[in-house]
Write a structure and sequence with these properties.
By secondary structure, the protein is mainly alpha-helical. The termini are far apart. It has seven helices and four strands, in the order H-H-H-E-H-E-H-H-E-E-H. Helix 4 links the parallel strand 1 and strand 2. The chain folds into two domains: 132 residues, B-lactam Antibiotic, Isopenicillin N Synthase, Chain (Jelly Rolls); 44 residues, no CATH class.
């Protein structure tokens, strides 16, 4: 995993490109179950190639804005239809969005953020039991939900917790188990 922090495809030697197996490096990274933070904790000195986007994909568009959806009035039938349409549109066009006026108290958001931070600071051995790509698991920790499908990997780790009335708090990482009581109450 040596090399420059950013090297475009056209700057690499033909031999270097011929010897490179993206899929093999991607699988090796995923098999560590350490995620991006694991790379940082290991003291890497350069960004692995699986995270380097081709030059043509690195075009910065300054006019991009994250869709913001105001869900105030969601209990009113007509407004709910509008909100659902906005969410559908944002999800289809962007894949993500920000909700405002959701009535989640700032204290709850802060505790959830703290729980995720505490999880990310755990030792690799503690986190690795949650590393999975199995969508049926209530708790999933991995690096890039679409790691094995994208052209390049994104520099991020993700923890997803599917919250329902049936979620057993014992399934949650101990570092953020207290969040269950906050969210369900």
């Amino acid at each position: 995993m040596k090399g420059e922090i950013y090297v475009s495809e056209d700057q690499r030697s033909e031999r270097e490109l011929a010897d490179y197996d993206y899929t093999e490096e991607l699988k090796a990274f995923d098999d560590t179950k350490a995620g991006v933070k694991g790379l940082v904790d290991a003291g890497i000195q350069s960004i692995p190639r699986i995270f380097v986007k081709p030059t043509e994909d690195n075009v910065f568009k300054s006019n991009l804005q994250v869709p913001v959806i105001n869900i105030e009035g969601i209990k009113i039938a007509e407004r709910r239809k509008e909100i659902v349409a906005e969410i559908k549109s944002a999800a289809e066009k962007w894949g993500f969005f920000q909700l405002v006026n959701h009535s989640i108290p700032e204290g709850v958001l802060a505790k959830m953020t703290d729980g995720v931070a505490r999880f990310n600071e755990l030792e690799h051995e503690e986190k690795k039991g949650f590393y999975t790509r199995d969508p049926t698991k209530s708790v999933q920790f991995n690096s890039n939900f679409n790691l094995l499908k994208g052209k390049t990997a994104n520099w991020r780790d993700t923890m997803t917790i599917s919250v329902s009335d049936r979620l057993n708090p014992a399934e949650l990482p101990a570092a953020c188990r207290y969040i269950h009581a906050i969210v369900i109450s």
